[in-house]
Amino acid sequence: MGLYRGAGWTMLRNAPGSFALFGGSAFVKEYVFGLENYNNATFMQNFFASIGGAVASLTVSAPMDVIKTRIQARSFDSPESGMTILRRMVQQEGFSSFFKGLTPKILVVGPKLVFGFTLAQWFIPTFDRMLKGNDRS
Known about the structure:
- By secondary structure, the protein is mainly alpha-helical.
- The chain has helices spanning about 5-30, 45-75, 80-95, 100-130.
- Helix 1 runs antiparallel to helix 2 (about 45-75) and helix 2 crosses helix 4.
- The longest helix is centred in the middle third of the chain and has 31 residues, at about 45-75.
């Protein structure tokens, strides 16, 4: 089971992270840009909305990611459960320990996430318009 250590925490991280990615992007499109139909977003609006979504996603998923990383970094000789790690982190390091490494992660992973999500959010309505014969590039 050592090969899959931290798999549960990875799944626990991915669900809220995905919700925050889409939710953060939608929040920026609606409340910053005032878009009613997200398909009408320009490339730059999608880009800035993706930045908001990426930062929200990485921030929301950070606590589970820290626990997952600590589970996976443990020696195979002394495995420890995520709940034990969570309790120890709260007692010994405080709640801020759940966000250790967040800034470097935003700086390293953020651009990749923004790039992919921006392109996806721009290409989906663009291809849809092209297929329907209503090209508004």
